[in-house]
Structure formats: C-alpha cells, structure tokens
Amino acid sequence: MVRHFRLPDVGEGLTEAEIVRWHVREGDPVELNQTVVEIETAKAIVELPSPYEGVVSELLAAEGDTVAVGTPIIGVREPGEEPSATPEAPAAGEPEPAEPAPSGRTPVLVGYGVKPGSTRRRPRKPAATRPAASPPAGRALAKPPVRKLARDLGVDLASIVGTGPEGTVTREDVRASVEAPLAPEAPPAPEAPAAPGRERSATRRESPDEERIAVKGVRRATAAAMVSSAFSAPHVTEFLQVDVTPAVKTVKRLRALPEYAETKVTPMLLVARALLTAVRRHPMINSSWDEEAREIVVKRRVNLGVAVAAERGLLVPNLKDAHALPLPELAAGLDALIRKARDGRCEPADLTGGTITITNVGVFGVDAGTPILSPGEVAILAVGRIRELPWIHKGRIRPRSVVTLSLSFDHRVVDGELGSAVLRETGALLEEPFRLLALG
Amino acid sequence: MTLDAHTVHDTELIQLLTPEGERLEHPDYPLTLSDSQLRDLYRDLVVVRALDRESVALTRQGELGLWPSLLGQEAAQVGSGRALGAGDMVFPTYREHGVAYCRGLPLLNILKLFRGVDLGAWDPREYGFHLYSIVIGSQTLHATGYAMGIQRDGRHGTGIGDAAIAYFGDGATAQGDVNESFVWASVYNAPIVFFCQNNQWAISAPLERQTRIPLYRRAQGFGFPGVRVDGNDVLACLAVTRRALDLARTGRGPTLIEAFTYRMDAHTTTDDPTRYRHSDELEAWKLKDPIARFRAYLSRSGLASPDFFDEIDAQAKREAADLRSACLALPDPPPAELFDRVYAGPHAVLAEEKAAYDSYLAGFR
Lengths: 440, 365
Prior knowledge:
The complex is a heterodimer.
Chain A: E1 2-6, E2 16-22, E3 29-30, E4 35-40, E5 45-49, E6 54-59, E7 66-68, E8 72-77, H1 144-153, H2 171-179, E9 204-206, E10 211-213, H3 217-230, E11 235-243, H4 245-256, H5 267-281, E12 287-290, E13 295-298, E14 304-310, E15 313-315, E16 318-319, H6 327-342, H7 348-351, E17 356-360, E18 379-383, E19 387-393, E20 396-410, H8 416-431, H9 434-439
Parallel strand pairs in A: 14-17, 17-18
Antiparallel strand pairs in A: 1-8, 2-4, 2-7, 3-6, 4-5, 6-8, 9-10, 11-20, 12-13, 14-15, 14-16, 18-20, 19-20
Helix pairs in contact in A: 1-2, 5-8
Chain B: E1 13-14, H1 35-60, H2 74-81, E2 89-91, H3 97-102, H4 107-115, H5 124-127, H6 138-152, E3 164-169, H7 176-187, E4 192-198, E5 201-202, E6 205-206, H8 218-222, E7 226-230, H9 234-249, E8 255-260, H10 279-286, H11 290-300, H12 306-328, H13 348-362
Parallel strand pairs in B: 1-7, 2-3, 3-4, 4-8, 7-8
Antiparallel strand pairs in B: 5-6
C-alpha cells in the first residue's frame, strides 16, 4: 500500500509552502522521521520528516512548486512490498485522500481534518458589476500587499485593469500582467493535464519559438534587489589594473602554513583583506543611505558580502564583523560562508546585514564589470580574472600577473575622490602585500 | 555575541560536572548517588530527549499543532524534577516536558494539548504537576499562593513538609507577575523554590533585553537567596534544587535558582531562530551538551558499558515509537465537550449556548 504524506501546516495557519529541495528520490528507502524534503514557508525553511517507513514510490511536487497545505507531496510504499500495477497516485491537484480516514475525515492540517464539506464559506458577494473597462484615472486602488507585489515585480499599478470589487487591482491581476505582457487579450492557454508534478514542472512552459520560465525564489529576489538598487542609487564605476604578482606568491606561501592547512586560500582572501583595510581608513565607503531620515548611516562594523553563484542562483551572504578577524579566521570564515552558500545552506541571518560586497567576476573568465550595488550598501568591488600580461616592471617589459578591479559606488554618498581613494588603496595593498602588514 | 555581556564566571556557577564530564566537588552541595541512581538519571535524560524529538517530528508531520522543544534543557529539568518529593507541587510553563516525565505524567497527556484534543488532559493533584501555563510568568503567582496555602495548612516547617516549585524562563523575569511573586514569597517566607531556566532567549529577545545583572542576583533585592547553577549539569541541578527544597520545607523560605542553560532548538516549531541568532552561539553550546558530558562521566568512571548505552538508546526509541502510535490513535473529542468542562455542575447559560452550538454544527450535516 502506498501512503501519501500531505503537506502539513508547519507554522500555525500557513496555507502554502514552496518545495525547496527533495532529499530523496523515487525508489529510495526512507526511515521513519528521516528528512525527505525542505520547504519554504512565509516564515522559514523547514525540513519535513517522513511519517512513514518504506520506499519512495513517487514525488508529487517538483522543486520550485508552491503547494497548498493538505496536498499529497510524496508517496511511500510499505517496506518489502512490490509496486502495484495500477497507479495509486492521486491525480494532480486533487484534494481528496487516496484512502479516506476511518472517520471520513481528511487527515490534513493538524492531526485530524475537517469532515468533507463541513467547511463552507459564506457565498461571496457578487463581484462589482461595473465593468472595469479602462484603468481608473488617478491612483489605482489596491491593498498594500498588492502594491508591494507590484513594486517588487516592477509593475505600474496604474497600467493594470483591476478585476476586484470596485475595480481594485488584485494579486492575480498583477501576476497576470507580468506573465502575459505582450498578449493581454489572449485567453490563458488551457493547461494540459499533467502527470503528477514531474513531467511538466510548473516553473517552465515550452512552445516551439520560446520558453517561458516563471520568475520565483532566488531569481525573483535577485531581480527585485537589482531593480531597487539600480534605480535608486546613482551608480558610478571606476577601474584599476593592478600587478598582483607578489600577491599571488604570497597566497602560495600562505597555503603552506599550518594555520591555513584546512582552508582554501585564494587571492580573494588578500583582496578582502585589502578592501577591509581601505574601509578602515575610509569609513564612509562602508555606509548606507537612509532616504526616510535623510541621513547617511556610517557602519562601525563591516559585514563583508561575497557574491556566490549557487545552484539556486546568485546569493550574497556576508561574513559578520569581518573587519575584526585576523587573517586565518577571515580565510576560514570566507571559505565556510562560500561553501555554505554553494550547498544552499545559508541561513537568513547570513544573507542580511551586509555592509559592503566583493564579487569575483574572474571566475567567469572576464576582466572587469560594472557591478550593481547590493541594496542598502554604497560600494561593491568586482575582481576580474588574473592573467599574465606584458607589464613594465622595473623599467623592462615583463610577463606579470595582472587583475582589473572595478569599484561601483553610490554617488549620493561617495564622491569620486573618496571612491578613487578606496580603489587606489585597495590596489596598492594588493600590489605590495607587505603594506597590509604595515597598515594592519 | 550575546553571551559576552553575561559571561559565566566560574566562581558564581555551581557545577558538579564539567562539560568534559569531569566530576567536581562543591562544599555547599555535597551529592552522593548510588551507581544505579546515576544510571537512572542518564536514562531520564536520553528518554526525555527522544520523546521531545519525536514530538517535533510529529508536529512537522502535521500531527501536532505546535511543540515547544526542550532540547538542551534536559539536565535542568531532570535534575530539578528528580529532586522533588511526592507531596511537592510543580507549577510549569509550557516547556517542562522533562519535569513532567519525572513526575510520572505520561507525555501523551501533553501531546493531547498540542494536538488540540484536550483542554487540560491531567489531574494536577494526581501527579503533583499543575497544568501547563501559556501566559508568561502567571504560574509563579499560582505557585506562591499554593505555597502560602501549605503554610496555612501547617504542612511545612517540620522538615518533612511539602513545597511548591515554580518553573519559568529568563523572559518571564521581566514580567510583573514574577516580581510580585518574589515579594509575596519573600515577606511571607513561603515554602517555594523559583526555578528559572535561563535559556538565553525569550523567543527572539536576548538576555540583555531582560536584565543588566545576572538573574540570580535579583533575589537578594527581594530578600532571599539566589544561586546560579550550570543548567546543563544534571548533578548540580539535582543538588542545588534539593537544598532549596530543603530550605523551603524547614521554614527557611524561598530560593531563586537560575539554571544557566541554552535553548538548542527553536522557541516553538513555528519559530525560526536562524533569523535572530548566530549559529556560532549554537555551536558553542553544543560543546556543553548535558547528555554528552554525563555519558562521558559514566563511561570514564566505569559506571556504564557500551551495552548499557545501547540498551538506553533502544529504550528511548521504543518509548518514542509508543508515544507516536498512542498520539496517532487519540480520538477526536466531540466539539460540544468544550461546554462540559467549564463548571463542575450544570449551568443554565452554558446549556443554552451548548444547544445553540449543537444546532449550528447540525447545519453543516
């Protein structure tokens, strides 16, 4: 017999959750209480333990899917039992249980469920009969959460025809305007009946000419952050080429030291150290712009952000109090943070509170970029690839290891003079690492 | 880091077992236990943790509505719980599953509350363990009143009398109720022990938002002794609570015990502690784990063999499985039962309301 685990409400009144990551695949044996899936609710990422022991017969939701509480998400066949010939999976989206509980109740939510049909909503008031033919003049009507959604998605509310009561713009209206911006008149394509959750992931739609990918999760958060940053902070980017031959040698020597035996030491460590030293000498570069208070907030602590290309997308976790860390701890801290981000194990605390950021575009094989600031910060340093270039060294042309540093800053807070000073000092510290010792 | 402001100074922390499992002696708190008593304490710790973990899993599987985990606080609860006498009365918060276990209260009763199928679930007199109190700190007033009742019944002062013990957390110390209890207990010299499990976090509010001085020192201002004990040391918690109960029973008034410990899990299953505390804090406390140190002590002193530990683990697993199946088998109460538990006898207004509710429910059939 296959038993289905229904998505529980893990947070007192939540209605849905997103499937973040499956820890098991079909055919895997599972033990009672073994973690099978990570879900993300409005409150937290939570690991769900299997309520059954047996073999996974099917996963009924794909990673990235948003699933309503009470929906079966995984089937577990009893141990030692052969798969039956007839499929036992409930049809996708079907809310009824595969086998009714003895009492006729649906075992959803907390422990026992409601009797089928015992919850009735009051009949809804008929929707406003006035056809909302044209966008209302002036300010569009919408509830605050819908306004926020529109802002997050970069949608202008005034451009949307509201279908709610009194012509209010609803959440669905906002979503619809994003999903079909080019053909607002076209009726939505009828959804093909899908195999439960997998054959056709809800996040992608195919047609011969184009592929549509729903924007959610990290991609959506990244987009919102980039838009809010790019269109609120006037960006300036400056570039500096630096001979890092001695720095590369220093990194090699560091690797040989016992203190660094268990840490991955890369030139990024010295870049971080150099930037931190420059920040200490120019605190204003480690600040933020408070629009409401009309104040510049200079941060006394440096929480150093590091942009990481993780499987789920771009993440910028930050290392807390990086300014106070001796070099071995800085190395270990960055190493651990980056691995955590790559493994998708970042905690919300790791991703908030950053004060200045480094991004390594060199890993993509390019020399420089014009990075966009992390929202709330006023500077970001991009590090290009290190490569051998002909360079004038002590009066002769020599092959040297050269890197380009690109520093973007918020021109409301940082003038060209300050930005240039920070970039120049960071470069000088890298060019001659002994200066790091000299300046501490 | 939060703990810096409240660094534990060894001089003020009563400890009989170091985090490495090394046995210490303390002149004020001599403790002699038989080998089997020591092994029983270990059994309690492991079983209580297993039952707690099972309850968290049941919550994640939708079988309970909520669970406040005691992870990390096992020693504080078992140590103090095993110090209690049969006639003593416990006034718990909502997290004292370990104390309940020591009082012989089947944890299934507590699961009934969090499954929402019972409103009380046990008779406090039967177990010397009052109902869970969700309102922060209110139970300290109940406990103080109860202790004053013991006094008035003449059931204390003889050395064999009874005492009350009130459990609460660091967050509760900032509540008016707790401070009022301290005043009443102090001026009436009530036979009560105030057992504060300082687990460093009041949901997301850190200790430095509750106090500027170590909590146990508050007692001095109220006029009774306060002591800080290593809350992850089951032996010290046992010894310190025993002594405090002894003072209460012999007419020497209240004691405040601050068990310095740490909430390893979330406040409840609906809380996400990673949003407000750093994982390095958690890692630091893992090194002070109450079970690991006791296990190290038992094996190093030859009191327990690997077989013993295996047997305890098996027992814990069994008890957790039993708890699970019993929980899943709990019947749903009829909704109208709500009305039957308000007054001891029949009540006209309630009867009317019950009838109205019945007809309302009938409308859905």
